[in-house]
Amino acid sequence: MPIILPTQAALSAAFSPLLPSSRPKAQAPQAPRTSLRAREHLYPNWSVADDAKAKTNQLSDAAVKEFEKASSKAQQSVGSGKIELYSPQFYAACTFGGLLACVSIISRELKESYSVQGAFKYGGYEWFKKFYSDLAGPENAYKYKTWIYLAGSASAEFIADIGLCPFEAVKVRMQTTIPPFAKGTFDGISKVTSAEGTSGLYKGLYPLWGRQIPYTMMKFASFETVVEMIYHRLPGQKSDYGKAAQTGVSFAGGYIAGILCAIVSHPADVMVSKLNANRQPGEAFGSAMGRIYKDIGFAGLWNGLPVRIVMIGTLTGLQWMIYDYFKIFMGFPTTGGAAPPEKQKA
Predict the structure, then answer these.
(1) Which one of 82, 85, 163, 225 is CB 3.0 to 4.6 Å from 116, fit for a cystine?
(2) Does the pLDDT of residue 5 top 50, yes or no?
């Protein structure tokens, strides 16, 4: 039996023109195209760019949440849930952060040497900076902050080099003997102590202090000063900026500090390299320096400086960025850029 009722399609076709919502709206006349008017076929590209931006923001938010979750777990692992500033746990964490900052960006052969130095250098700097600041008092510590930075970094490097010197002694011997006198670092330490005693590992301690302490003083004092200058010229305060911005400032301050370190230490490094390569048997130290300087002149002391600036600048910038990123991870403020202490009302 045929269906006599109209179908849904037929009803829609018959009555849809009568519905106000289905009537075609009058379109406004389009303005004539000009050279400044965007083309319609580019609109989908804008949509794709917006979608990509939204997805990037979602991934960034997810990464921040995971970072905060991991950071919270790391802080809770110490027991109290948050490490207090200048507590023993704080200095232990900074020591590990210094180790991490140094071993993350150097070759495998140097990790054993400079991991010890980096640990004591950064952790010791935090301790000595607080120690000297407390001795000076809040107002004097801020007034003479550069001297605090210099004294703290020099004291930290003094101790760090005691840990570095045995590894440095073995490294130099392995690099200057063919075949190497030891299979590895600890094998070399064992051989030196067996033949010469513990004092054999510290023959180069005084020259090491003379090379490293001025370098580290420049590295830390200039970094603190540059970071403070950057925040001083930025709008707002340091606390107004997020994690990415603060670690970016740390990299920039570290890079500039590395440039200054390279400039200050380059002549001495060139002279040391020349002495190791050209010093004649039995020649006195002062005579060898005078002879080499006469050969290369003042300009020769600066050969290779541009390459060293790029290398040391990048290395120092990455070290400070990694170290401050670890401090953020542990819930600590980043290094440098602290506000001056409030003056007590009379």
Answers:
(1) 163
(2) no
